[in-house]
Amino acid sequence: MDERIERTDEPVTPDRIASDLADLGVEAGDTLLVHSSLSSLGWVTGGEPAVVDALMEAVTPGGTLVMPTHSTQYSDPEGWQNPAVPDDWEETIRTERPPYRPDVTPTWNVGAIPECFRSYPEVHRSRHPTYSFAAWGADAEEVVADHAYRNGLGEKSPLAEVYDRDGAILMLGTQFDTNTSFHLAEHRADRDQEISTHETTVVGDDGEPERITLEHLSYDADDFAEAGSDFEEAHPEAVTEGAVGPADAKLVSQRAAVDYAADWFEKNRA
């Protein structure tokens, strides 16, 4: 029997997802940054579009729904691990991959739900070739506009826009180890940090391919789970736990999590 069927008491419908989200505390008008695992939801009637539809219903057009739509196939192949590529392939990959195009380039390793979401009508995707976000709703265009190439998860990123709107993080079958907002906290931590650079190609303002250099922190998520656990212990009022279908879910104050993690990184990272 399919594992999704085994862990589901009945088909998970869009209405059930929307109802469970409301019970968790998601409200109309919210700014909601979603990290998701489709498989955690069991047997979803209609698959990933059903989840996207339910999330849109939960926040309504008066709110703003945001998801990471990263395309790390545009990162530097020298650091790739899953899979690693031969050294003599790297320069060919750097120079011959087609330019990043927000409307065309698929996501990579962020799950089926964001990949589905990015193609929906009235969804706007940011211009960053590796760390893009997509957004829908009242503030969608503003959240993804002018996403800086430098420090793509920092102060001029959609993460900071969600922070400024006092948004919430929805972890739908995921945990703090994939909590992208902690990268914003890395930028805000008062500590010396390594910088990484690499070149890639995007479609420029004139519609022609443009070679650019990306510069950002050497992001490190290895301790995100530990930081998240400590955050939950220190600020239980900022986290609501529940279930959406059979999936464990958490609704988290992004502002509280980022503020805590910035201080945590200062104290706990060498």
What does this structure look like?
The protein has 270 residues and is an alpha+beta fold. The radius of gyration is 19 Å and the shape is globular. It has one domain (3-268). The model has no long low-confidence stretch (mean pLDDT 94). Helix content is 32%, strand content 20%. The strands form 2 sheets. A 7-stranded mixed beta sheet has the order 3-4-2-1-5-9-8, with helices on both faces. A two-stranded antiparallel ribbon has the order 6-7. The protein has helices at 3-6, 14-24, 48-59, 90-96, 112-117, 140-144, 158-164, 181-188, 224-234, 254-268; strands spanning 31-36, 64-68, 124-125, 133-137, 168-172, 195-203, 209-217, 239-244, 247-253. The protein has 10 helices and 9 strands. The N and C termini lie far apart (48 Å).
What is the fold's blueprint, element by element?
Layout: H1 3-6, H2 14-24, E1 31-36, H3 48-59, E2 64-68, H4 90-96, H5 112-117, E3 124-125, E4 133-137, H6 140-144, H7 158-164, E5 168-172, H8 181-188, E6 195-203, E7 209-217, H9 224-234, E8 239-244, E9 247-253, H10 254-268
Helix pairs in contact: 2-3, 8-10
